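Bench log, entry 3. Co-assembly request; chain sequences pasted below exactly as received.
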Amino acid sequence: MKLYFIVLLYIFAGTPGYVTAQSIISSKHNLSVSGPGSVKSTSKSEICIFCHTPHNSNPQVPLWNRNNSNTIYTIYDNSVSSSINATTGQPDGSSLVCLSCHDGTVALGNVLNSATDIFDGAGTKMPVGSRGFLGTNLSDDHPISFVYNSALSVSDGNLKFPPEYPATLDENSKMQCTSCHNAHNNMYGNFLVASNEFSGLCIKCHDNNYWDFSSHSTSPAIWNGSGTNPWIHVETPFASVSQNACANCHKPHNAPGKAQLLKSTLEENNCLDCHNGNVAQASKNIASELTKLYKHNVSGYNLLHSPNENTAGVNHVECEDCHNPHAANSTTASAPNANGALKGVAGINQDGVVVNPVSYEYELCYRCHADNSLFASTTTRQIEQNNTRLEFDISNPSFHPVAGTGKNTNSPSLIAPLTESSIIYCTDCHASNGTNAPAGPHGSIYPSILKYQYVKADNTVESSSNYALCYSCHSRTSILNDESFKEHDTHIREENTPCNACHDPHGINNAQGNSINNSNLINFDLNIVFPNKGKLRFEDRGNFRGRCFLTCHGKRHNNLSY
Amino acid sequence: MKSIRIYLILFFVACLSQFSFGQISGSAHDFNNENWNSSGEICIVCHTPHNSNTTVAGAPLWNHQVTSSTFTPYTSATLDATAGQPGASSKLCLSCHDGTIAVENYGGRTNGSEIISGNDLVGTDLSNDHPISIAYNTALATTDGGLNDPSTANSGLGSTIANDLLFAGQMECASCHDVHNGGGNSNLLRISNASSGLCLTCHNK
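Structure output for the full assembly:
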């Protein structure tokens, strides 16, 4: 009895070794009647024959048995992506033979060594809409059939040369379908030549700056099952952000966002599909911030952003204008240094020069809010300046200390740990409102995307909430106790005059103002403060002392000193 | 116990049935009814018991004119073997199938006109045909990665690929084809290619 079992074991162990998990036989490329896929022949038992013939092949290599589609393809080139450095042309080499099924124009059973269709006799082609269907428009697919050499690696700056094994180039140093796919072996899924977990295959060639330390490369976050699966574009997604890596956003074939092969045509959706509370942690739930009235309205612009755009590009804002998804991480920083969320993005420095990457957060803000006429002032003032960069110039008579330490050396209202030598971020004032809101100026219920309420209307009843923005740094008690300007309480609480009537929160440029008339951010709101006998002027007279020439709330200040 | 015996018997019967025994008579190489073969004999087109053609080393009692063509071998960037001019035994096949010598040029005749055509014509350009006359050994299998080791892999014919299908360690026409139709398979294949069984004997795909 025992002997029989041993004999049986021997027989089964001796069955042909090609019946293994990675064999073509168990893959969808087995189009024979024994194939495991839904697309397969109704009767043909031979497997190799759908692609290969031992005699009279065409093309000769690799003993090809299929009719060529003779199609002129729409290719991925620099008309699709202005950032592509490779020179692409019509598919050639081994890619052509792949396309003789995958472009959907040649019947699967249309082989050279048979006069009749060997698939099902009916001329069935690659089903339109299936994942394997590429069509004749390859402009939404990863480029192929281009020479990949050291020159390309240099000009691109984010490509390795040579590609790392097992990503290979063909005999003409060209990237082909076979660089990523092995038609005979599906052990890694999608016939990939290596596992793409953690984008292990992509990074054989792509060497993106910063990537290894980006949150999108390291985050263990998983989808919580709510809403739409953010990885629905992936046939067999991995569980976490870090495992899916490039595939979180990119799709190498049939990509809706062609230029960067993004999974979504709308730039923001590539981000918000995860940053909606369902994958990224709540503190990174940006989608909810963008439902607020005042926001960086990324959904208001489509297809205007380009990764290599210059600052003279078309007016728009996308997530990628402030964040580099290949670089962003959770590294903290102190003002004015840019934190991890802003890693690897371009901006304009205090001198008006483009910098890439930014060192300081304000340089990123200047990218749009400086040196252009996109944004009008929200308050009509004595001195108008819409160039934010000039408002924060450290040679100004006064400014909030964003680009450098402020001018005021005695500011008793500052709440610790703030001191007169502190530097603050733009985002200390301009940020999403709400106690647990994600950092950054994504969306706010308050105008100008302010973190707290800042009422600018005249005759506002003073309260901790109406001027919450100012009071978040400047002690309300100190202000109302007149610890600096002796008439603060009179103006703010008794006369219901808003902070904004006298103070210009950004700063007054040195070319327009001076240290006598414009110290302490004094730049009157012309809708509230009017001239008196033709004079509208503040004069600084030293520590906590000054005088005014103006008319406000019907009261004439004629050389009114304090 | 008894049922196991029955299963074993059934299994061996099934194994035996894989080896369907064919014969040259009635096959594509049975030329006895061809109008160019007045002898009515089958073997005579290739063989003679006496005074055989010895211009090709190892040619078995050869009775047919032998090709003197120069062939264009198969090349490919991914081919790890090197295919040169066809070896002796393959050259005998090509003496009809390269289309340069008439099939009736046997027994000393050299002026025949019956040239092979259609799917049977391989021609002198072998660049679109499976490479032949290549050394297929353990080293090649290791280098290629997609081939079974001929010294150990089962041919399905009783022994290893090297013993059953190779000739002096070389892959030749006769590695796939049995000129005498011993296998009884279509295209005179040694091993049935149902489920690509012949291809997958060597190719580990």
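The two ends of chain B are 39 Å apart (CA to CA). Chain B touches chain A at residues 1, 4-5, 8, 11, 74-79, 119, 122, 127-130, 146, 148, 153-154, 156, 176, 193-196, 199-200, 203-205 (CB under 8 Å).
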